[in-house]
Design brief:
The protein has 197 residues and is mainly alpha-helical. It has one domain. Helices cover 37% and strands 2% of the residues. It has 7 helices and 2 strands. A two-stranded antiparallel ribbon has the order 1-2. A hairpin with a 6-residue loop joins strand 1 and strand 2.
Length: 197
């Protein structure tokens, strides 16, 4: 799914705005981090030590129904009380969905474009899931390229609302440069013209 923001700056003007204004840079980073996540949602203060964040937990190994087959929490559960129980249930449900859909595990698809002399290691993953963590979003001061904050080595970029509603693997990317847009269009064209489709 491609979402185009009407009235958004062109890639060149976006780069110029980011590089010329710290205020604009901060606003774009805050906005991107609010819609594209690369880590589990926070449910409690002790989330760093939560084992569900260090190892993948599948519904099949727990003997429970797949979360994608279950209805997520609803605001109707509030019944005139605070919203806190809903948001806790919402984030816990997102965590279950991420374990099923967005936890990247290297497989043959990751290496299908490697040359014979290239190793099948994380840094060569074609999905760019090499396990590198970024404590904060970085914007290259020369090119304006954006590397989003990544606090989990295996969780593919997602949007919590889209994941909640669609219950499937979503890899959300910000296309902020002309090169990225061309690469995205090539990927889509290549994908939809597969002989198997």
């Amino acid at each position: 799914m491609l979402v185009w923001l009407k009235g958004h700056l062109s890639p060149q003007k976006l780069q110029e705005a980011i590089l010329s204004s710290n205020e604009y840079k901060k606003r774009i980073v805050d906005w991107l981090e609010s819609i594209i996540m690369n880590e589990f949602p926070v449910v409690s203060d002790s989330h760093e030590n939560d084992p569900c964040r260090s190892m993948r937990i599948r519904s099949t190994s727990q003997g429970v129904p797949h979360p994608g087959t279950l209805r997520g929490p609803s605001l109707s559960m509030l019944q005139n009380v605070s919203e806190e129980p809903f948001w806790i249930a919402y984030h816990e449900y997102i965590i279950q969905l991420l374990h099923e859909y967005n936890w990247h595990v290297h497989n043959a698809t990751c290496w299908k474009n490697l040359k014979s002399n290239q190793e099948k290691i994380a840094k060569n993953c074609r999905m760019r899931m090499d396990g590198t963590l970024y404590k904060e979003t970085i914007i290259d001061s020369t090119t304006g390229a954006i590397q989003l904050r990544r606090l989990h080595p295996a969780i593919a970029s997602y949007n919590d609302v889209a994941t909640f509603l669609m219950k499937c693997n979503l890899n959300i990317q910000f296309i902020g440069s002309g090169d990225a847009a061309k690469a995205y269009m090539y990927y889509i064209t290549d994908y939809i013209t597969k002989p198997t489709l």
